[in-house]
Design a protein that fits this description.
- The protein contains six helices and three strands; from the N terminus they run ααββαβααα.
- By secondary structure, it is an alpha+beta fold.
- The protein folds into two domains: about 60 residues; about 40 residues.
- It is elongated, with a radius of gyration of 22 Å.
């Protein structure tokens, strides 16, 4: 009988990825937790004031259920990293700022005052139509 694969958790994002999309623990980990330190079996967090007081215990129990190993969750006063939600927001803002600085986009925005970028997407290779022989004519 083969042993179950060991779950390796290196970040708060790794933990969140294992949780049910609608679980309150997932929502709290994304929006109300600043990760201070994480190593195997030990996590140090700084919860926001909106986090439930049971968060550390809930997380410890869930990690035990997921990994079969005991996890120590401690509360810290250190600042820690931005929450996962803050990290996503900052990454999105940086992407928008980067796109805004592209010469073609800048020209369009300058030409049409009040225009704004609503979404930034990366086109996959298969989304871009391959040139057809008629395109060369």
């Amino acid at each position: 009988m083969a042993a179950a694969p060991k779950i390796e958790l290196r970040s708060l994002a790794d933990i969140v990825a294992l949780l049910e999309p609608t679980s309150s623990l997932k929502v709290n980990l994304e929006h109300n937790v600043h990760l201070v330190r994480m190593e195997p079996g030990r996590i140090e967090i700084r919860p926001t004031p909106k986090a439930p007081t049971t968060l550390a215990g809930d997380l410890s129990q869930k990690l035990f259920a997921l990994t079969g190993a005991r996890w120590s969750i401690s509360i810290s006063r250190e600042t820690g990293h931005p929450t996962l939600a803050e990290q996503r927001r900052d990454a999105k803002a940086a992407k928008f700022e980067s796109v805004t600085q592209e010469p073609l986009v800048r020209a369009v925005l300058d030409r049409f005052p009040g225009a704004e970028i609503k979404e930034v997407r990366r086109l996959a290779d298969e989304d871009v139509a391959a040139p057809t022989p008629e395109d060369d004519a």
